[in-house]
Amino acid sequence: MTEPIPLTGVGGLPLGPPQPVERSDAARNRARLLDSARRIIDIDGVAGLTMDRLATEAGVGKGTIFRRFGSRAGLLSALLDDTEREFQAAFISGPAPLGPGAPPLDRLAAYGRARIELFSTQGDLLRASEAGGMAEERYTVPARRISEVHIASLLRQAEVGGDIRILAFNLLSVLEAILLLPPGAKAELTLSRLARGWDELVDRLRL
Amino acid sequence: MTEPIPLTGVGGLPLGPPQPVERSDAARNRARLLDSARRIIDIDGVAGLTMDRLATEAGVGKGTIFRRFGSRAGLLSALLDDTEREFQAAFISGPAPLGPGAPPLDRLAAYGRARIELFSTQGDLLRASEAGGMAEERYTVPARRISEVHIASLLRQAEVGGDIRILAFNLLSVLEAILLLPPGAKAELTLSRLARGWDELVDRLRL
Lengths: 207, 207
Prior knowledge:
The structure is a homodimer.
Chain A: H1 24-44, H2 51-58, H3 62-69, H4 72-93, H5 104-130, H6 142-157, H7 164-179, H8 191-206
Helix pairs in contact in A: 1-2, 2-3, 4-5, 4-6, 5-6, 5-7, 5-8, 6-7
C-alpha cells in the first residue's frame, strides 16, 4: 500500500511535487477520512479533532487512521495539504479574476482576498500545525515559494517598478500576518476590513 | 530590593508602563549584567548565553543572576526590553529623521530602516525569546501597539488616504516578517535589499 509522503510547507502547508498516485480505493478512503475530519472541525474546532473522535466519526479503526496519517500532526498536515493544493489550482488555472484572463493587478487583488478568506477558515488549523515551531520555516518552504513566484509574475506582467522579488516577499508577508492574528484581534481587524486594506495596497501599485 | 517586573511584548519585546525606579546600585548591577550578556552574544551568539557563562563573565554568583532575572527567558526578555526602550525613545523623541522634525514619510522610511537594522542584530534573540510560542501573542502586546500607533500617526500627518489603521498594521507586518527570516534566506534577501524595498513601499504612499 502506497502511503503519501507527508510534505510540509507554509505553516504546515505542503506541496511542491505531486504526491504519488494512490490506488483509487486508498484515495477514496483518504478523502473520506479528511471529510470526516473537516466535519469535526466545523462542529468543535481543531481542538476537538482527536484520532479517537475521527475513528468514531468515520467508522473505522484507529489503527487505520494512524497507518494513513502517522500522527495527529500528519492528519493536520494532510488537511492543509488538500486545501492548499485546491487553492493553488484555483490561482494557477482556475476561472478569472483569480485565475488567468483578468488584468494582472486584478488577479493580485483576487489572490489576496482569496488568501485572506482561506486563512479565515484555516487559521486555527495553521496555528495548530505551527505550534511545534514551524512558523520560522515559513519562508523556505515550497508552498510559500509557489505563491511568491505567482505574485512576482503578476507584478512583472503589470510592469510594476522596483525590486519585484522584495515587493512580492513584502506583499505575501502582509497576507501571512493575518494568519497569526489571534481570535481576539479580529473584533477590530475584521477580515472584510483586511480584505479592503489589501485592495487599497494593490491600488497603490497601479499608480 | 525592588526587582523589575519582567514585561513582555513584541516577540518578547517588552514595554508599556515604565519600570519602577531601581536603587542606583541595583540599576548599575543590572546594566553591567546586560552588558556582559551582550558581550557573550557578540562572541558566541544567543545559544552561547547561559546563566553559568554569564556568572563567570560578570564575576558574580549565579544566584545573583537568578534573583535579578528569574530565568534565562527573563534575561533574554530584559535584553530585548532595554533595546526596545532605546529604540522607542529614538523614534518618539530622538533626532530627525527618525525622531520629530523631518517630514512624516521620511520619518516612516527612517523607522523601517532602523527597525530592519534592529532586527538584524536582535533577530536571534527575538527568535530565542519567541521559541516558547510567543509569536502568536505578537499582535496584542504593548510594544507592537506603540509602533502601530506611531506609524498610523505618521500616515495621518502625511494625509495618506484609505484605512490608516489597517495600513499601519500591514506596514508593520512587512517589517516583522523580516524578523522571522531564517539565516539561510538572508543570502538572497539581504538586509540592505530589504531596506531599499521598504523605501520603495513608503515611496508608493507619497503618490
